[in-house]
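Shape is hard to put into words, and the shape of a protein is harder than most. The fold becomes a row of whole numbers, each drawn from a learned catalogue of backbone shapes. The outcome of that step, for a single protein, is printed below.
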Amino acid sequence: MAPNAHAVLLLDQAGWHLSDRLEVPPNITLVPLPPKCPELNPVENTWQFLRDNWLSNRVFHCYDDIVDHCCRAWNRLVEQPWTIMSIGLRDWAHRF
């Protein structure tokens, strides 16, 4: 990380994200999203895209089969940076 850099981290309000025991470095600011608003979190759309395109309607034979399918899906998505960008963009965020 660059010297004197500061990061802002958006997160949902899952209990482990907001735990009092979480030690947050002083150069990171946590910004919790409103509760029950997955549409504000682009990662939720990424997971939905993976499920819709490569992970749904499958029967997994074992744990390793699940991990293999998830890794293949993730690697396919990573090979498509423009898809990732389009999933994460929010038109309303650019209107201000």
